[in-house]
Amino acid sequence: MREARLARRRRKEKTQPHALAHPVLVLDFLPKNIKQMGRDENREKNTALPPREARGGYCSFCRPFSVKLCTMKISLDWLSDFITWKEHDPYKIAERLTICTAEVEEVEIQGDLLSHCCIGKVLSVTKHPNADKLSLCAVQTDQGTKHVVCGGTNLSEGMCVAFAHTGARVRWHGTELLTLQKTKIRGEESEGMICAAEELDLVSLFPHSKERTIIDLGENDKDVGKPLREYFGLTDTILHVDNHAITHRPDLFSQSGFARECVALGLGIWKRNILPKKSLFPKTPLPFKLNIDVPHLMPRYCACCLTIDSLGETPFWMRRRLEALGWRSLNLPIDITNYVALECGVPLHSFDAEDFVGDIHMRTTEEGEKIVTLDKIQRRLPEGALVLSDEEGIFDLLGIMGGLRSSTKESSRHIYLHSASLEPLSIRKTMIATGLRTDAGTVYEKGVPHITTEVGFFRALQLFTELVPGVKIVSQLDSRGDNGKAPAITLHLEKINSYLGTDMSKTEAEKTLSTLGFTTSHPTSAAQQVQTCKVFPPLWRLGDIHGEHDLIEEVGRIHGYDMIPPVVPTGILVPPSRDQRSHSLRDTLKAEGYFEILPVSLIRRTLLEQCCIDHRNALRIENPLGEESALLIPSTLPLLLEHAQKNLTQREHIFKTFTIAHTFAEGREEYAELGMLLVQKDKENLSTSTFLQIKEHLQEALNQTGLALALEPLPSPPSFGHPCRSAHIVINGKPLGFLLDLHPSVRSVFDLPPCATVLLNLSLLQELHPRPLIVQPLPRFPTITYDFTTPRTHKQPVALLLQSLRSCSPLLLDVTIRDVFAPHSTDPEFNLTIRCTYGASDRTLTEKEAQREHAKVMALAQN
């Protein structure tokens, strides 16, 4: 009786325009906050399509997507066809699958709100004495007669209703959940509730119900008192799986795929063979010829022709399972293809063979070809789309959506059933180019295993033979391609425990792989048998199992990563030695007022020529963005000069910059270079010359690193250096760079006043050992200081003078240059002021003693 009523309701709905259910096979797109019983009323609002009669056979797998959430639904009742459950708690099943296979986002108990609900019969209806819109009802239930207050507008005596006892949870006016309690409404006692569809989440079964309209279940006394879950057949549990976690596992886009996982995880044992029996085929050839013009795009194909007496009626058990996963029943042939696609993981298609004209070609399209798809939209196809065509044109967009012309209709009596494996990249390109994404295309772009194509085809034939009236297979099997061959993968058993951190035996590892369908063979050598084995993946895993690492991952996840004890890694961490001297140089130079610039290490040829640097020695990159950045810098000087030219006006008196960058040139190794530039904007004398200032700053920076600066004459300065004011920078006896005034011709190119530069090889500098730090105590007794000035020429080295003065008296503690003076920095002579500090460690010197020692120093300085 229940099946007859549901059938009448569906026949009535055929005349009503309705939307298809949301895509659910692999991708059931619903907002996470929507809890659904099987199908949801929100789906009815998404895509308004013509009635089913006008559409012909609209395969659900050809439906376009409308929202973005991607989930796959697994029916535990469906899985019970294949396995006997050892674990019956759906939440524990979901937890185990989440840990080992894929994330289960939601456990949906069908008819969750139907607990404590039954079929009730209205015995009497009277008006509420204190409310115009309420009625007093006596309802016969499984717990006797109950008296309730009800506001339903369609109440009548004798009708059967959905009755909720006290303690039941209902959705008040379709919104918030509450638990019913015995109460008084407007002074009258109420012992339960006569429910509307939205109050029990049954809108999907009663889509035309309105507010204040209760569920009308007819006038059948036989079902009075029957639990609502049993009455509606809502006894299934649905797991919502995040399909992002299984995009690399096309075998899991099916109920049978998850059945294998549940057996491997120990949640159940096999009840029956998952593979269907192969059908018998006559020797009659197909009434047309199928030409596969691009066989590499369809490596596996199975097809045959059938005749039927009528479309038949979809059995209740099949409709219930389709609806549980969100699919609307259309007609029996299409329901079978949808059912097989959900069960096996390969979208199939049934064509009306009478619509074919001539032979069929499986080919790719040329730019601009068109097809009218099942949704009655004419689509312009891109070049390279995979299609089926006959003499009248294209009738199927393979793997994405069928054509309207060849669809299965109420009048169809000759069916062409096919199943195919398609090249994933081709399907994905076509979906992107057309903007048409369907469930079928989403499955195909993951790569349907070849064996699944065959299994799905024979499963569909089995269901056609069992369910469709008068079905006959009237052609031979058209089978193209093969199911592939499993490669032998060598597995080193000791690597499993080494990689996973387990203590698993060889037998345990092989048993785990066996539960997943892998087969193993052992080498003939006894020694090798202990260490290695050959593993052959099942044919449905050829797409994602490629090497030993994949096998170890399979063993690990089935064993359970949560079962592997966590171990904190042990080891001695010794930080690498770091040379902090470059950081010390930076800090000291910044303290002296220098600004660090960080230019790009690419340069143009013209800038090198402006600096008198030969561009032929610079390294050229092979793929420059342009001539402005075609060469790697051979020196930091051009970058400093270009920056100074652009920014000189930002400083009033003196402009000081530096940079540290790697430099490159033909014939030498790359090294890090410190480049310094000091520009004197004011008029300079000898004491304020750029050469002496930058020397002083560099000397202070090197002192902070424990290195002493020495300068040596440079007989042949570089082309950009001043011929008379250039020197080698010598540290620990090794020349490491240049300190020089810039050549006037180079300065004029960049329009710069007098400036000096330092170019120092930091890579070599970091190889030198700093001087040992010697700490001396502060003097206990006062010291006496004398200054004297002596004339000098530029040809007389000051360093030799200072060295000789320091050794002429044991009481002379320190000798330093106090000042230098010349009217012009280019004068041949200058005055040098030297400061001498005298002292003793055991007493305070007298003035006379200090003057006597100072006389010796003066005499030496004048000679």
Please provide a brief summary of the model.
With 863 residues, the protein is of the alpha+beta class. It has 23 helices and 41 strands. Helix content is 25%, strand content 26%.
Q: What is the strand and helix layout of this fold?
A:
Layout: H1 2-13, H2 52-55, E1 71-75, H3 76-79, E2 83-85, H4 90-100, E3 104-109, E4 117-127, E5 135-141, E6 144-150, E7 160-165, E8 169-171, E9 177-179, E10 183-185, E11 188-190, E12 192-194, H5 228-232, E13 237-242, H6 255-264, E14 268-270, E15 290-292, E16 300-307, H7 316-324, H8 332-344, E17 348-352, E18 360-364, E19 370-372, E20 378-380, E21 386-390, E22 393-397, E23 401-402, E24 414-421, H9 424-434, H10 439-444, H11 450-467, E25 472-473, E26 478-480, E27 489-492, H12 493-500, H13 506-515, E28 519-521, H14 526-531, E29 532-536, H15 548-559, H16 581-591, E30 595-596, E31 602-603, H17 605-610, E32 631-632, H18 637-647, E33 654-665, E34 668-680, H19 690-703, E35 710-713, E36 721-731, E37 734-742, H20 744-749, E38 755-761, H21 762-765, E39 784-793, H22 798-806, E40 812-821, E41 829-838, H23 847-862
Parallel strand pairs: 15-18, 30-33
Antiparallel strand pairs: 1-13, 2-14, 3-13, 4-5, 4-7, 5-6, 7-12, 8-9, 10-11, 16-24, 16-25, 16-26, 17-24, 18-21, 19-20, 21-22, 22-23, 27-29, 28-29, 31-32, 33-34, 34-38, 35-36, 36-37, 37-38, 39-41, 40-41
Helix pairs in contact: 7-8, 8-11, 16-19
Feature tags:
OB fold (Dihydrolipoamide Acetyltransferase, E2P), 863 residues, single chain, Phenylalanyl-tRNA Synthetase, Chain B, domain 3, 25% helix, alpha+beta, Phenylalanyl-tRNA Synthetase, Chain B, domain 1
